[in-house]
Each structure stands twice: as C-alpha cells, then as structure tokens.
Request: fold
Amino acid sequence: MTTHSATQPYEYDSIRPYLDEEVPAVAARLADQPELRHLLSALLSEEETTALLQQLGRVKSVREFKEQISYPLVLRLAKETTFSVSLSGASRLGGNQPTTFVTNHRDIILDSAFLNLVMRERDYLMPRIAIGDNLFGRPWIESVVKLNDSFVVRRSLPIRQMLLAAQALSAFIDQSIQQDRQSVWIAQREGRAKDNSDQTQPSVLKMIASSQSSDPLTQLQRVNVAPTTISYEYDPCDILKACELLWRKHHPNEQYVKAAEEDLVNMKTGLLGYKGRVHFAVGTRLNELITSELEAELRALPKQQLYPRLASIIDKELHSNYRFYPINYIAYDLLHPDKAHPKELYSAADKEKALRYFEEQIAKAPTDAYSTDELRTQLLQMYAQPICNAHLAKS
Reply:
C-alpha cells in the first residue's frame, strides 16, 4: 500500500486523508473521545473497548489504522450483524489494478467498509473512500474517516467554490489511480437511494471527470471505473427510509428537513442492525462497456447529454448484477401477483419469515403518522425495486 507523504498538492489539503505524519496526534485525541467510546461499547465489551482505544492512541500511520483498528472492527461487525459478506466478479479486477468502484448506495458507512473487507480478504487494494462532509455531525467523525484513508466530497458550497472543489476531487482521484496506485470508492449518487431505485447521478460522473487535464470521457477512462452492485438481504434502516419516503409523498411541495441526530441514528441503526447476506458483484469495467462504435457516439455528444448517457450505461450494468434473496421475490410477488416468480425460488417458510420481518419493522416505525398498510406497501416496494430494475436492464 502506498505510504502517504507531504508531497500531495496543496489544493488537496481540504479533502485528502491524513498524512502519516499527522496521524499520531489525531489518533491520540480520538482515543479520548467519549462519544467514540460510547459507540464502540455497543459492539464491544468494556474491556475490549478500552484495549481498542489504547491501541488507537498508539497508531502511527493510515495503514496501521486500517489494519489494526478498521479491519478488525468491520470484521467483528460482519460476524455479528450479517450471515455472510461475499464477492463475485473478482476476475474483472485484473489482478490488483487500481480501480474506481462506483456502487449503488444502501448504508452510510457499511457500503464502503464491507467493500474494504472483501478486498482485504482477497489481498486486494482496500480502496480510498469518498464521503460527503454533510455526514460530519461531529468533528471526531471527520477525524475517523480521514484516518481511514477517506477523502471528502464538499457539499453546499457556492457555485464558484463548488467547481474548484470538483476539480480538486477529480484530480485527487486521478492521482490515486494513476500515481499512488490506490483504488477509490464513490457512491453513484449523493445520499442513499431510499427507494432502492439506484440511479447514477450524472453530476457524480461530472465531478469525477472535472479534472482540467483531459476531456470528460478520457478522464473517466483514465480512472478505470468499475460499476459494482451491492445487495443487502435486509436493510436495518428500511423502516426509517420508508417513513422519509412517505413524508415526501405526503408533502410533495415541501423540503424534507432532517431532524437533529437523524444521520447519527441512521449510522448506528445501519451499523448494528442485522443485514443477513451481503454481496458485492464487480461488473464489467466502463472501459470495456464502451466499444469503439459507442465511443464515437459518446464523443459526438455535448456534455449535457454525455453524462446522462454514461450514467445509463453504468446503471444497466449495476442493475444486471443484483443478487436476489427470497425477501425480494416475495415482495415483488405480493405487489405483482400476476407476474409471480416460480415458487421454487422461495418456500412457504421463506414467505412466512418475510411477512413476519415486515411486521416487526413496521412496529419499529419512529412515528405513528402513517398507517400500517402504507408502511407495509412502502417496504414491499423497496424490496421489490431491484427486481424491477433488473427486468428493465435486461429488456
């Protein structure tokens, strides 16, 4: 793994991970953070928490933090909150070729953390992680993510500053891939897809391609984009997402404003809730999806049409590689009984289990503003949506 050095360009300073020489002071401060101790105590015993924080205080580099703190914690989370975390399509990684993983977005923290886990277990590069600064509800959270080799996507800047920030981020990703030989993870959209529709935002591709060093298509080819599909059997935050979706449905002309601590509640629920089986499917790289004929077509497009077209190419690949579980088929069949799947895809016991799960999640709703029927229908739509996407991708 490439060692961080002070030679990174100045313009990266506001977004880059910590340099190794910055790590000891940050790690020592973090080890004394009461909120971090409280969060760890939900997963570890008091003795284990104390030992981990003591070890954190001795960390001297980003690599040590990832190997000694992050990896054991994520491994523990996987063992206690999942049935399995698996990977397919590894042969498409070309050995250990630096890659920009563009994935759908389900969980605030674990999408990238579990990707790091499956990469580490294959002895592949653990990617650097793009994370929005809107999630830094506490200063110590930014310290944690930057110790973990994450880089920051600046949100809500004035337009002029937004352009400069996008150019810096694009150049940082390019340097990571081309010079540092470090892989990168970035979600296909800003924020999680609450309805599981998983549509790549053209603005994300525009941000990746904003480097002034080359044209947009060439820049995306340089950073070696691999559409990668994440499939969770269960989403611990599903009822929270369902309530937000219903609020938006009931208030179409109003802006949804997050409650205080909402992101922290979602983070904790996603981290500690049971997820069943989790699967990562590495798809065909964008460079291989773009044939010479398609490249000629893309280069003829104006920029305002180029990014949506590229997003549709990535989405088709992402949607073609979902892994479905009984709960997905059951949700789809309950909504579309005229298009029901073959019954060998799930048993009567599977259906009973899924129906019981939906009722248990409805009972956890943080508000009584919505009826049981509304919540149930919303949950069914969320779990059925990946199958709908896959059908469209293959049509």
